[in-house]
Design brief:
Length: 186
Amino acid sequence: MLALQGAFREHVQALARLGADAVEVRTPADLAGVDALVLPGGESTTMDLLLGSSGLREPLQAAIAGGTPVLGTCAGLILLARDLEDGVEGQRTFAALDVTARRNGYGRQVSSFEADLELADEAVPMRGVFIRAPRITRTGEGVEVLAQLDGEPVCVRSGPIMAATFHPELTGDDRLHARFLAGVAS
């Protein structure tokens, strides 16, 4: 669990409910023995700066490039995106997921909302909490759409990487985390 900034505590709680032992990663040494990563929501430009000052950018880049499974939510999706439509000058991503993301794609804080989402292979809708959420404006080849909102992808997977524009950790519905852990186990 990248624990530099953002909604990491709620992810830790969701993972614990599913029996996973979440380690809070704040330094490169914290990565030792980690089987998977969660990049939480928060503020993507702040997270970018903190990745540099903590010394985590290069070790995380290497882990992701090496095939470590990753779940990114909201700002975590922005960190994983190959391209940003409106990134701040100099803002970097891991460019690990072949999508284009638009920061604050639904508008400012006052435009935050919740919506029911149909998650692939699930009969019961999942509640999505969208807080200054990014939009996925392009998906590349090999990117599977797991959930949509009004015809736009809001949750995707490509190989060992899963990402959502919303905050599944804020609802108490752990199905997305369970899917991620099932992928890690396999």
